[in-house]
Amino acid sequence: MQNEITFPIHKEQPIHTVSGWLVLPIVIGMFIAGPILMFFGIRHLVTVEDSLGWGLTLLLAGLAIEITAVVFCCGFFTLQPNEARVLILFGAYRGSTRRSGFHWVNPFLTKRRVSLRARNLLSDRLKVNDNRGNPVEIAVVVVWRVHDTAQACFDVQDFENYVRVQSESAVRHLASAYAYDHGEEHETTLRSGTNEVAIALRQELQERLEKAGVVVDEARITHLAYAPEIAQAMLRRQQAEAVIAARQKIVYGAVSMVDMALRELHNRHVVQLDDERKAAMVSNLLVVLCGEAEVSPVVNTGTLYT
Fold it and tell me: Is it the case that residue 283 has pLDDT exceeding 80?
């Protein structure tokens, strides 16, 4: 059986840095001492014939101090709050520092800045098929931040692009797992189960982005609609369902009112109606109560049965 290829996972390691304010006076003193030594060395070389070796020594010492001061300047860097620096020495990871302020480290260390602030990723509107095959448009916003600077820098090529690509993939997978709406009883849909869908999206994103040292703070749907090619058909279906639901409530209320009217007439002995008259009364009341247009009543001036 072929062995599975595994890649090393880097973990962030803190590194100690020296305060830049302690090293800065030393570097300034070196910048001042270097030219002075070079000046006296050149002066000895020009004016004193028997001090050739001493003058050359002063000149070279001053030049060396000046070059060292320039090199030491490469070790200074500053960090703002919620920022980190990943320090690399000739390709080897040496550690990360998150302490804000003015720092100095080995000048030969490569210093890579990584922001630890929360960031927003607003995805494009993606056209995907829901659980029932209906094309829908969906867009999400993801709030994320870097948690492990070593993983973000070394375990993925470009962690910002990695977050963007994986977020798009997670949204497509999520949309295919839920129906847009009109699910079965107690079924979570993209439209009705906003909180449940947001939790599921965040969990899936966290699993995908964990290898990049990224933490997902929040993920929510910002846009959800049917695709334009079926939007009109779905709108007509929603309108029809709304009309049916309204008619059901109207009929239920009308039947209840008719039943109440017949019972009240019977209990109070207002009038005694046979089955045929009751049927006619029920028909008239249902027409009045369920009709959309206003009904004009016909007043009977004769007897009850004419």
Answer: no
DSSP secondary structure of the chain:
-PPPP--------B---EEHHHHHHHHHHHHHHHHHHHHHHHHHHHH-GGGHHHHHHHHHHHHHHHHHHHHHHTTEEEE-TTEEEEEEETTEEEEEE---EEEE--TTEEEEEEE-S-EEEEPPPEEEE-TTS-EEEEEEEEEEEES-HHHHHHTSS-HHHHHHHHHHHHHHHHHHHSBSS--STT--BTTT-HHHHHHHHHHHHHHHHGGGTEEEEEEEEEEEEE-HHHHHHHHHHHHHHHHHHHHHHHHHHHHHHHHHHHHHHHHTTS----HHHHHHHHHHHHHHHH-SSPP------S-TT-
Say how far residue 234 (Cα) sits from the centre of its chain: 29
| Residues in Cβ contact with 210 at an 8 Å cutoff, skipping those fewer than 6 apart | none
Backbone angles phi, psi at 294, to 5 degrees: -70, 135
Rounded CA-CA distance 134/85 in Å is: 47
**Tally of CB atoms within 10 A around 102:** 15
- Please provide the average confidence, as pLDDT, over all residues in the chain: 80
Rounded distance, CA 108 to CA 74, Å? 8
Q: 122 near 139, Cβ under 8 Å? A: yes
Does residue 62 contact residue 54 with C-beta atoms inside 8 Å? no
Q: List, for residues 201-254, the tens digit of each pLDDT value.
A: 899 999 999 888 999 999 888 888 776 665 555 566 665 566 666 667 777 776
Cβ(100)–Cβ(130) below 8 Å: no
Q: Rounded to whole angstroms, how far apart are CA atoms 137 and 128?
A: 6
Which residues sit opposite 121 in a β-bridge? 142
Backbone phi, psi, residue 125, to 5° = -75, 115
Asked whether the predicted pLDDT for residue 266 surpasses 70, the reply is no
